[in-house]
Amino acid sequence: MNYIKQLYITLIFGGLFLGIQAQDQPEKVLILGGIAHIGNGDKMEDVAISLKNGYIEFIKYQMGSRIDRSDYDTVIQLDKEKHIYPGFIAPNTILGLTEIDAVRATRDYNDVGEYNPNVRALIAFNSESKIIQTARFNGVLMEQATPRGGVISGTSSIMKLNGWNWEDAVHTPDDGVHLNWPSQFVGGGWWADPKPLKENKQADERIQQIYAFMEEAKAYAGNENEEINLKLEAMEGVFDGTQTLFVHTDRAKEIIQAVNMKRQFNIKKMVIVGGYDAYLVPEILKDNKVAVIYRRPHELPIRPEDPVDLPYRIPALLQDTGVLVCLDMSGDMEAMNQRNLPFVAGTTVAYGMDYEQAVAAITGNTAQILGIGDITGTLENGKEATLFISDGDALDMRTNNVLVAYIQGVTVDLSNFQRDLYLKYKAKYK
Amino acid sequence: MRILIILVVILHAFSVSAQDYFPVNGVQDKRHTTYTFTHANIQQSSEVLLKNATLKIRDGKVVAVGTDLAVDEKSEVVIDLKGKYIYPAFIDLDSKYGMPEVPARKWNPSPQYETIVKGAYGWNQAVKPETQSASIFHLDEKQAEAYLKGGFGAVLTHQHDGIFRGTGSLVSLTNQSDNKAILQPNVTAHFSFNKGSSSQQYPSSLMGAMALFRQTWYDADWYSVNPNPDHENLSLDALQQQKEMPWFFEARDYLEVLRASKLAQEFEQTLIVKGKGDEYKRIEEIQASGVSLILPLKFPDALDVSDPYNAMYAPLASMKEWELDPANATLLYLANIPFVFTADGLKKQEDIFKQLREVVKYGIPKKAVIAALTSTPAEWVGATDLGSLETGKRASFTIMSDNLFEDDAKLMETWVDGNRNSFVLLNESQINGKYNLNIQGEIFTMKVKTKKEKITGMVFYPNGDSTELKGDFSKELISFYFFSPKSEDGLWRFSGKINYEGKIWDGRAQQDNGSWLVWSAIRQEKEASEDKKEDETITNPEIGSVTYPLTAHGWDSVPQQQNYFFDNVTIWTCDSTGTFRGDVVVRDGKIAEVAKDIAQTPDLIYINGKGMHLTPGIVDEHSHIAISRGVNEGTEASSAEVRIGDVINPDDINIYRQLSGGVTTSQLLHGSANPIGGQSALIKLKWGLGAEEMLIDDAPGFIKFALGENVKQSNWGDYNTVRFPQTRMGVEQVYYDYFYRAKAYQDAWSKYNESAKKKGLFKPKNTVEMPRKDLEMEALSEILDSNRFITCHSYVQSEINMLMHVSDSMGFRVNTFTHILEGYKVADKMKAHGVYASTFSDWWAYKFEVNEAIPYNAALLTEQGVLTGINSDDAEMGRRLNQEAAKTVKYGGVSEEEAVKMVTINPATMLHLQDRIGSVTIGKDADLVLWSGHPLSIYSKVEKTMIEGVIYFDRSQQEARIEAMEKERARLIAKMLKAKADGKKANPVKPATEHLYQCETMEDELH
């Protein structure tokens, strides 16, 4: 860039960066002023943040810093009330793997078979998804694209919500394998005629099958194999610690069983996904360094006796025990609901979570749990320049208003077809 | 302990005899023996117990009963029943005895819309009143034996299949012949809410079953007065007689008992309902309903709660039921609700005695229990010759070894119409005890115990050593063996006979070398049997209280209406006075005063509102909570006849959960599976009250319509492609068709009514035929007359436009488009039509028709002047409607006051309740929500939710309430653990299963 573009954003304003052309190159950006939510539990007011080469060159207090503005393509001057957040990260999601839930042709997250660790989410990732546009609009800038179904659903990848194609959009390929732990209770019947939940008599047998698979996979990983077995091959990272084993489960006993398997196989990285009862078994989680991706807090309590607001409170309860926790938005209509990830974090604040911790639960903690905490997820020197500026508090839907966003220093297009339709029909009625 | 010999073969006193005029193969064998039972304790009726009395029977009838009857040993068969008890045989009014097996429902992936029954019957397979139980009855000795062992002499049997099940017949459990067995053919009418073997689609929901019940009776009336029917309908013919019969209903739980009774009342019938045994949950409503009950005696088993992680998933409701179900009969008795017992549900009928002993522990008088098995069921079916033992009545009775409520009492014989069925010999030997065994002069001490036909025991040698004894015995003979004291004699094997009812045994024994010994045994002492007093007072088991509802978060006592003073609170009035800080007074359930500063009076309960906000109660225009067994009767293109109001489930935990989010009023809507859905119910979320009390009095009538993918079954799989309509083009035609039919229906009735008016002296007969009363057409007529309002599920602009055209041309207005996600595209047209919009804040992408749904919809509609609300359609989101409203501020910049109105006064207006609820305005219902902060902030929580001056949710009470609930759980868990330790059955924990309905939920709930 051979010219300097200086921008000043000072008023309530939402649309400046809408509709700009997608671009590849990181910009040199200087953000001055505003409240920076670091994403590690801290905040800094009246900051200066320098973004260069896709990274945060520095973040410091503006006061007393001498910064040469001519070094930058863009200088953003914020008033004190504006907020700067690390890009929100949506873990455990099918965003980008589906477009319309009811249309089978658009569903690319659940393949045939019980043990599919070799099935890789990034392959089906649609970086041009219209749903992704709407998630970015609210500050969700990264995700863990995750397959569903079976016992081992497949391998997830961490994706940037910006990119020409999946190869371009991938942040960390094949970060982990997803295992659905056998449920203690099962319902019978079929979808049109469900039967009540009852004890799962096959649970032990299913767990044995998982152990048997793990044993073979471990043996395979330790061998020079003449013949490639794609399924076993796909498990190697779990045993050598380059990949995380994400175990999807909710009940206390199941969590204990899953963590027990971690010990049995000396699995380096395991994360519980779901974890409704995790707050009841914090010791075993902490002792074994198992973190929790807590299920969407905007859900009904699992047990009728639970306090009506228990799902809102669990993240704080879990946080208080010292277990590392982040939040996801999985569940019904989850692709479109990813844009509400900031607001489930907001809800946890009303129910006991410290505000900055709630921010961490969708940024820094998430990055750590996904194994990318060293390079992204917080507003710290040397971290990736993935962040956004909101006109107001981004965890409250009343004030969430993303003005500008960067992913690895590249400006993000915040336009989306919903807003386009809004403007189109607004104009019609004028 | 008495020794009871169970015989494998039942002894029948008589051989099978046929009717007098039936040809006999052989010589005639008529017997007129008199049987005389002496020295018995005779329970002549539930009220009268004769001690040491005599009963005489002859020719199947009681000929005399009393304490001073002469006995003629020469001409009578005399049976001495010293110490034993005689009871009138029991009668079971809910039986399948002798009925053919119900065929299994044929499963077919393709929906079946029409009946496949051949014959001139009605149109619905679940309606089979033509089933005549007497015609299909065939006695079944195996089933009969099971009943006889439970002390039953007669049952009311019917085919348990379908919603209309046909007639019931009173049959005796005789083995003689079908002709003799049937005492009263086809005397009762039977119904249920279960489709049974019907493979037809309609009805799939409980409300559909209830509508079908109503419509069928209207059809029967119309058919009976129609002078020239153009067709024969054997089902409706059959119903003509059933109008006069007692009506029996089978219900799944207490809610269905109440629903059945409500239906019966509409037809001025009282009802006998077989319940689940949980009627104590709402005893006042049951009492008021006037039903009589058939109570099962199967009680839930304990749960295995030994593992605390498992125990967490044991629902409080299940634990409470386990504790309280056995007390049901006592609680009903105390409330004077008439009931009888049935053995249905027990594994074996003979288990009934054990269950009755359990039932009386809770304090119900024993005579009431006996009445519920004898005189009361006899009375209900008009069986004047059954139910007690008086001269002339049927000789059907049981002989028990003791008072039937004693733990050891055994059923020995059941006599049916003078025929004997013997299960335990009356004069059995009693060989338990200590004997002196004399073996050729040497005396051994011997202690024996018996179990069935086996004996075991110990023999003590003269030197003090002992050895084990084993053997078998029958009525007269005995054999046993043990090792002799001297090893060379080896095993002694004894055989002999029992004399003097077991007092003396004698015979010979063989040693290993083959030589024989002579032996005898004389009883020294009988095993002491515990003497129990006749009217031993048993302390009632301790039981927890019945909570309202009997589930998690129920109340020990439902909170009451009180007068309140909200001080210094930010009031979002949602009326023209706007938002300001001030005070609010609530009196007698109404908002009495609203002003900046009101003088506080001491009679008001003070609530400090400093820093807090007060809004009207949230009104959810679109909810599917609190509905039993099916939200969709989506089987046919129209189901205008079904009513959600029939199937309110006041025990749904989601009522309480919605309260915690500030919701006070919900429109419970039918689903969206068909273009013309069912009638809505408007309820207030009065947690703890019954269904009828939740319904809003004099609420305007609403009905659900639906458009688009759901009604054209787009996402129902490849088999559901045969119902009309399958396109949006077809949907329009459905509406025109139904509304033209409704107009024709109106015309037919007005002609008929006109003609009826003209009827006079010279024109005695109404020449116009009475039209058929059609509940579906009635509902559509109400729409045409603007007496019922449409809430229409809708997504895309084409269909929205279409329905407005249909209604314009038919002369009525669509009230509300709900969901209406493309409303923003036709907002101007909607404004012109005058329709309201009730939308989601930001849902989209879940199906193709919501691909252009945008979160700015509410803002655009509002800008165009369309009154707009935000709804949930979801039990979870219903708790956060304030947050959903707040999204309209983000998307499209709706003002905060307008956003709050979108979940209060706007939906109240859509429901035509704006004069009663929806704003903090003097004179309106005191439906209020106190928020910890700004009502649109994600950081605000509901502190209190009030409905009509009653605080149904109070956050400050939550901790104490949860603690109390946990304490109650802990008590029940301890009790269950003890039951398990005592050897009672404990089943694995089953977590609560919630049925969460959305528009789309489409299940067959009636099998």
Explain what you see.
The complex is a heterodimer of chains A (430) and B (1007). Chain A is of the alpha/beta class. Chain A folds into 2 domains: 7-86 and 394-428, Urease, subunit C, domain 1 (Roll), CATH 2.30.40; 88-376, Alpha-Beta Barrel (TIM Barrel), CATH 3.20.20.140. Helices cover 25% and strands 25% of the residues of chain A. Chain A is built from 13 helices and 21 strands. In chain A, strands 9-10-11-12-15-16-17-18 form an 8-stranded mixed β-sheet. In chain A, strand 10 and strand 11 (152-160) form a beta hairpin. In chain A, helix 8 crosses helix 10 (341-350). The longest helix of chain A is centred in the middle third of the chain and has 19 residues, at 203-221. The radius of gyration of chain A is 22 Å and the shape is globular. Residues 1-19 of chain A have low confidence and may be disordered. Chain B has 1007 residues and is of the alpha/beta class. Among the domains of chain B are: 1-22 and 31-88 and 388-427, Urease, subunit C, domain 1 (Roll); 90-105 and 119-386, Metal-dependent hydrolases (TIM Barrel, Alpha-Beta Barrel), CATH 3.20.20; 433-526, Lipocalin (Beta Barrel). Helices cover 23% and strands 27% of the residues of chain B. Chain B contains 24 helices and 44 strands. In chain B, strands 1, 2, 3, 4, 5, 6, 16, 17 and 18 form a 9-stranded mixed β-sheet that branches. An 8-stranded mixed β-sheet of chain B has the order 7-8-9-10-11-12-13-15. An 8-stranded antiparallel beta barrel of chain B has the order 19-20-21-22-23-24-25-26. In chain B, helix 9 crosses helix 24 and helix 16 (728-758) packs parallel to helix 18 (797-810). Chain B is globular. The two termini of chain B are 48 Å apart. Residues 1-16 and 528-536 of chain B have low confidence and may be disordered. The chains are: A alpha/beta (430), B alpha/beta (1007). At the A-B interface, strand 14, helix 10 and helix 13 of A face helix 14, helix 20, helix 21 and helix 24 of B.
